[in-house]
Design goal:
single chain; about 150 residues; alpha+beta; Aminopeptidase; 5 strands; globular
């Protein structure tokens, strides 16, 4: 059986995923060399932070038993100084599984979930601002060629 014969499954993250998520984050770190290895206690703390509903706000992709990608959505409970909702999408794809559309699929899911969550937490029609790594505001972009 080759890796392409193994079905990919999608489901929410659970606390049982802490070791697998830590391992995935460290594979990503090894490839990107950002200098911040993941540790299980920190990952467990992150997954249990107030406001994060693992069942509704996370999505994990597994190839067989191996966690190969994930995304988590966070929508701040207060508006920013301009009256907008802050939405953060956090995720990653195993370096060996990149360039196959998986990250785009997860990002699309996360954008939709963030919009739903923003509407739930801030029903007064506040505008949602999605923040990508580094906190860029899409309205302030000067060029459509900026990477995500």
């Amino acid at each position: 059986m080759t890796s392409t014969d193994i079905a990919m499954t999608r489901s929410p993250l659970t606390l049982d995923d802490v070791p697998a998520l830590t391992a995935l984050l460290n594979r990503i770190e090894a490839a990107e060399q950002q200098g911040e290895p993941a540790e299980e206690p920190s990952i467990r703390e992150w997954l249990t932070m107030p406001g994060l509903d693992l069942e509704r706000d996370t999505l994990a992709v597994r190839e067989g038993e191996t966690l190969i990608a994930f995304v988590a959505v966070d929508v701040h409970t207060s508006l920013d100084r301009d009256g907008r909702v802050r939405c953060q999408l956090m995720g990653g794809v195993d370096p060996a599984r990149r360039r196959r559309g998986l990250g785009a699929e997860l990002f699309d899911w996360a954008e939709e979930r963030a919009a739903q969550l923003a509407a739930e937490r801030h029903p007064a029609n506040a505008e949602a601002v999605f923040r990508a790594g580094g906190g860029r505001d899409p309205e302030q972009e000067t060029s459509g060629d900026m990477p995500l």
